[in-house]
């Protein structure tokens, strides 16, 4: 009985050894090599075009107010106080306007400024210096005041009490303008569009019963009024070869176009790492840096009609922060890298046009931050970069 059992075991062993070794198919297809086994690949999309342009800067809802001159930009302040119903008398005897100064831009000495009544209505979200520069009373200025080149102080200036009395009595209240003849730096103040430390108007008055009282009133509206010297008109395409600018006060944006032709259409992009190198010798930002967004362009492939150019507003735009002291900014954190990767993937598979990107600040009108971007490979490879990590699907074996 043992011999049949031994024979059965020997047959099982032979079958096991035979089945665990690959054998070529008779057709010979198995000898063909695969084109791809699905490995990860890395490519750098070449930068093929770079330009810049300016767009209007809206300051109506900015968290700051700017007064003075710096880097070819001038700014006045318009402010209005309309919540005067709590005062039951026109007998205001003092009016003090207070601003909390939070920064200065430029190194210079103090400058003198003046306060004027505005004589036309204006809207905070749309008013500009051009619409108010001939709409105030230059000859009826209050006493001048000095603006100090400090990063932190309180500016106090006197407003004629008779102006406030006229407003209480129902006269036209279009607010006041802070103006200057010359300034050698830009002072930055906190706006009413924040939660604390906004401007105030401190009033001393006499009630109808003859009692002395005081009240502090917040502004209803405040806005910086920007003007420019020696800048190209807005929406003018400016080709870039050496440096490009992103500028919070001047309104500069940077246009970029990369070549994705080396990325196969069926590639799965795992990461798209976008980077910008800044020239630190001419880059100046606030302590928290300049936050920028990368917008995909969905119309105007030739960048010729910048005023009508449309940016993709369907998807979340990747965001990064350029800081003074850090030469390279890379969008490589979660979830921002995911947003950048998705934007590139939409282009490579043909779901979005390859019209390039606009890199712009999220803080226009807030301060005088300006970033100088390298634009040429001659600068030691310092130029906008886009590193793409992708994989191809594995080819069938036969």
Report the structural category.
mainly beta
Number of H- or I-type helical stretches: 4
| Helical content band | 10-25%
Strand fraction: 35-45%
Structure description:
The chain has 398 residues and is mostly beta strands. The protein has 2 domains: 40-56 and 234-391, no CATH class; 64-228, no CATH class. It is 11% helix and 36% strand. It has 4 helices and 23 strands. Strands 3, 4, 5, 6, 7, 8, 9, 10, 11, 12 and 13 form an 11-stranded antiparallel sheet that branches. The chain has a 6-stranded antiparallel sheet with strand order 14-2-16-21-18-19. It has a 4-stranded antiparallel sheet with strand order 1-23-17-20. A hairpin with a 5-residue loop joins strand 11 (200-206) and strand 12. The two termini are 48 Å apart. The model is unreliable at 23-33 (pLDDT under 50).
Topology summary:
Elements lengths: L1 H18 L20 E5 L2 E8 L9 E7 L2 E8 L11 E14 L5 E7 L11 H4 L12 E3 L5 E6 L2 H8 L7 E5 L5 E5 L9 E7 L5 E6 L3 E8 L9 E2 L3 E5 L4 E7 L9 E10 L12 E7 L22 E4 L5 E4 L4 H13 L8 E5 L8 E5 L10 E7 L7
Quick summary:
The protein is mainly beta. The protein contains 4 helices and 23 strands.
Keywords:
single chain, mainly beta, 2 domains, eleven-stranded antiparallel β-sheet, six-stranded antiparallel β-sheet, 4 helices, 23 strands
